[in-house]
Write a structure and sequence with these properties.
Elements (H helix, E strand, L loop, with lengths): L1 H9 L33 H20 L13 H14 L7 H6 L3 E2 L11 E2 L7 H17 L1 H15 L3 H22 L30 H10 L5 H10 L5 H12 L3 H8 L2 H38 L11 H4 L7 H13 L8
Antiparallel strand pairs: 1-2
Length: about 350
Amino acid sequence: MEPQSQNLKTAPFLTLGRFHISEDYGFLLPNPLMPLLNCQFLTGYREWRLARLVLSFITMGYVWQDGETQPKEILPRNLALPFVEVSRKLGLPPILVHSDLVLANWATRNPGGPLEIRNLDTIVSFPGGESLRGFILVTVLVEKAAVPGIKALVQAVNAILQPSPDSLLQALQQLRVSIQDITGALGQMHALPVGLVYEGVSKEPLSYSGGSAAQSTILHAFDEFLGIRHSKQSAEFLHRMRDYMPPSHRAFVEEIRVAPSVRAHVLSSGSGQLLTAYNQCVESLAALRTHHLALVTKYLITAASKAKARGTSPLPRPPRALEARGTGGTAVVSFLKSVRDQTLAARLHPSG
């Protein structure tokens, strides 16, 4: 019996606190609400972007939890304050934008594998299954396909400053290939299901929308580089969308805008090779916009019209904005046709 006696002497007294049991609330967690999130522990640009990604998704989930017809009108303090603080730090409006939904919202399943849709996943997502996930990841691939084109802009501007006609020609050719690759990447959107089938409710898929492509820096930079001028209404909308870009990306577009004009340089050079290469870039960009227009018609306009016809469905309809407007708030078809047509109008013709 002596060993048991020794064990009793060394055993700690039994207390509820050791087991996270409250003297006042028992197994209940006392005052479950967490303290206000503190942004001072975030270090570096990447952590601020990731924090904004999570907060923006939580915010949108909270605001739209009851559907389009009953959005919340007040964002709770414990979410509003950190979200606004992070957004101000990054120079972005406190709302989910393209830089959250796409640019900061991807990861590779196998880090050593190729950057293709089968090896990609989103970090955060909304309900919507493979349709929404695929929408985001195809857009990630579009952004990746633009990388050589972005580099080509820098090479071309420097080639004008040096000057180096051969380097400029190479840059224009690389830009054309990159734009064509973007169109190819965007083509993967056709492989996605057209919405989501709700078993027991509808035999046809119901389609909902994603983020606004107009907030992507890619086409803004390409337009400024090629000197494409859009109609007053379209230009005003596109410039408003730049407020939804990270400030450093917005600054890049502005840097391209104030750089020496490649369009004027090509015209004054008298080079048939440069003129052809420039026009091929413009035509490829117009083809990309035609392809985008077809996608929007398929996934937004047509799908929304079908959903409207199913007015007896107990599910909420896709947002009314889809019936005539894109996700950025523009009259989508007329807008996309206008920017496509203005792109084609930028083609140069040999002088004389």
